[in-house]
Amino acid sequence: MTSISGTPPASATSPDLLDYLVIGAGPAGLQIAQLLQAAGHGYRVLESGRTPGTFFRTFPRHRKLISINKVYNGTDDPELNMRMDWNSLLSPDPELLFTRYSKRYFPHADDLVRYLADFAAAFDLDIAYDTRVERIGRRTDGGFTVTDQRGTRHDARRLIVATGLTRPNTPNIPGIETADDYSTVSVDPEDFVDQRVLILGKGNSALETADNLLETAAVIHVAGPHSIRLAWNTHFVGHLRAINANFLDTYQLKLRNAVLDGRVLSVDKGGDAGRYRVRFAFSRADEVVKELHYDRVLVCTGFRFDASIFDPDCRPELVIDDRFAALSPAYQSVNVPGLYFAGTLMQQRDFKKSTGGFIHGFRYAVRALSRILDERYHQRPWPQRTLPATPVALADAVVARVNRSSALWQQFGVIGDLIVVDHDGRAHYREEVPVDYAHESRSPDGGDYFTITLEYGPDHDKVDPFDITVRRTAQNSVDGSIDAAYLHPVIRHFRDGELSATHNMTENLENEWDHPQVHHAPLVAFLARELDRRPSPAGR
Asked: How much is the pTM?
């Protein structure tokens, strides 16, 4: 029963031990809650705000999402439409889609907040609102005790953290505390009229802020130690998106603005008329240090995970400059058994490579997590269908999936389908398995398995995506390597955990990999060759 008052529901103070406690009622918390509820598990979500999606009530600061909302796609296939819908959660209700809430390609953040509230209400999710977690400790039986701001204890066998990244990722620079932070700085351009502004950071929050000030600020410098990375080069949607790139025009066309590559050594708000003096070491000029002067310094350097609420005996190990908890292939803390993570925190497994940090990516990772939990704790095997282990039958199944699946499309290279071939000539097809988890938990009923993923070619981020001379058709070499850059299906055969062979399906402009001669026949030949190479049952 959902509580929207300032008091947790009566059951929140119950001494009963829940199967799962979920911290955070953002998109990931709602997604895992709906899946746990559908599976019949005892759970509760603890949310510090008074409604779902508290983060999106403030962020992004300029209120325009960069998650695509493509309503019209020329198809009524719901799976294909999810490829272009980056905001909807997975749901048994085909009408509960974000595309019903906005037709804007880049929608307003308030529409997402409204959608999340309706999603929670539609399933009557068990959420204790206005319940801020202050401490997480370990029970003597291996479970967890979570204490909220009222001193109320919530106990569960397992804990799922879905808080996202909540602490500003403030760089360690002397004097940085005198600067304005992205989280609180004014978004009114009139507050920056005729000012010289330094923006620290080169991601979307920094460039979104710069674009907002183009008409009023006298000079804008965007600074950071690394070069700007563009999403259209890297295919990582967290890198700079075109919608936030107007500022780059003003730099390249000599309108006084600039992008600085280097390190800020210090920030001193003690200059003339209270101006900032910033010592800056230019990376492209042999670390030459220069003192620069600004009226405002804005810190737009992203966010990090807050591990301060964990007791020492259950505090997760942190990685990537302590910004994320270190996760196993099952999205479990590497050092705290029973502690799992959902949502944007899952991107530690594919950091700046795929889409694990965004709704359109982690919704599938969260569904995978629910299946992992079912396998590990509830004796429910991964859903699968059985096929004859013949080249044609397997090729038919693969071609059908890669031409329709949204999970493989969105979580490219990270989530794939898995075919396990057993000893008696049958194949078991499992959909949407995290690839690293598939390797870790391969079935004992056979040593052979195939993974099916969608992937970009190697070094795809090092070529000009608009130069047709570097676009090539996928060609498989003897060692399985590929000479291609664009998204395409990749099928790998593993024997006893070791890679045996790789097949790349040919690229296609329309992303349709179903041509009988170009796609299907070569795949049949590859599968036939690999299946023939399998040892006989007696040889095992």
From this structure: 0.91
Tokens 């060692």 correspond to 479
Q: Which long-range contacts (CB under 8 A, 24 or more apart) does 313-318 make?
A: 313/137, 313/138, 314/136, 314/137, 314/138, 314/144, 314/339
Helix or strand (DSSP H, E) at 369:
helix 359-377
Instruction: Specify the pairing of strand 426-434 against strand 385-388.
Output: antiparallel
Per-residue pLDDT tens, the chain, 540 aa: give them. 444 434 444 334 445 799 999 999 999 999 999 999 999 999 999 999 999 999 999 999 899 999 999 999 999 999 999 999 999 999 999 999 999 999 999 999 999 999 999 999 999 999 999 999 999 999 999 999 999 999 999 999 999 999 999 899 999 999 999 999 999 999 999 999 999 999 999 999 999 999 999 999 999 999 999 889 998 888 888 888 888 889 999 998 888 999 999 999 999 997 667 799 999 999 876 778 999 999 999 999 999 999 999 999 999 999 999 999 999 999 999 999 999 999 999 999 999 889 999 999 999 999 999 999 999 999 999 999 999 999 999 999 999 999 999 999 999 999 999 999 987 889 999 999 999 999 887 654 557 899 999 999 887 666 666 665 655 554 554 445 555 678 999 999 998 888 999 999 999 989 999 999 999 999 999 999 999 887 655 444
Nearest to 34 by CA among 101, 105, 92: 92
Look up tokens 């959660």; give the residue: 89
> Distance (Å, rounded) from C-alpha 393 to C-alpha 378?
32
* Helical (H) or strand (E) element with 440: helix 435-440
Give Cβ neighbours of residue 286 (< 8 Å, ≥ 6 apart): none
Query: CA–CA distance from 174 to each of 242, 278, 321, 323, 528 (Å)?
Result: 33, 10, 18, 20, 63
Closest CA to 29 of 166, 170, 134: 166
